[in-house]
Amino acid sequence: MKKQFLNLVIVASIVIFTSCKSSNDKRNIESNNTEKTEKKEQQKERGERPDTAQILAQMDADKDGKISKEEAKGPLQEQFSKIDTNQDNYISKEELENAPKPERGGGQGGRPQGGRN
């Protein structure tokens, strides 16, 4: 009887411990996601370009560490052949880091020139 009670206490302790850990993990994940979303919103408000890791995370649908022409969007897709310097039909992290910065303002698809109203 004592052995069964001891086993029950051990099993109950394990269940309680793992459920508490799971709850903390979920809270940490939610907190990290909120922080990332806030950072992206702040960058947009300031007109900043996302960093290389953010671009890869957003566009690399198959998570192979590089961006194919099909995965690329916007200016990255439009300038794909210029950015893909080794012409392997993928943009690597290094190629992305060395890519020319997109022009802001009076260029195609940019904001109108003349400042804010």
Count up the helices. 5
Q: Under CATH, the topology of the largest domain is which?
A: Recoverin, domain 1
Radius of gyration: 24 Å
Q: What value does the average pLDDT take?
A: 76
What is the terminal-to-terminal distance?
Answer: 82 Å
Q: Tell me, what is the CATH class of the largest domain?
A: Mainly Alpha
Low-pLDDT regions: 106-117
* Order of the strands making up the biggest sheet: 1-2
Tell me, what's the shape? elongated
* Element pattern in H and E: HHEHHEH
- Largest sheet: number of strands, sense, barrel closure: 2 strands, antiparallel
How would you characterize the overall build of this protein?
- This protein is mainly alpha-helical and 117 residues long.
- The protein has two domains: 1-48; 49-101, Orthogonal Bundle (Recoverin, domain 1).
- Helix content is 57%, strand content 3%.
- It is built from five helices and two strands, in the order ααβααβα.
- It has helices at 2-46, 52-59, 74-78, 80-83, 93-97, and strands at 67-68, 90-91.
- The protein has a two-stranded antiparallel sheet with strand order 1-2.
- The longest helix has 45 residues, at 2-46.
- The chain is elongated and about 75 Å long.
- 5% of the residues are buried.
- Residues 106-117 have low confidence and may be disordered.
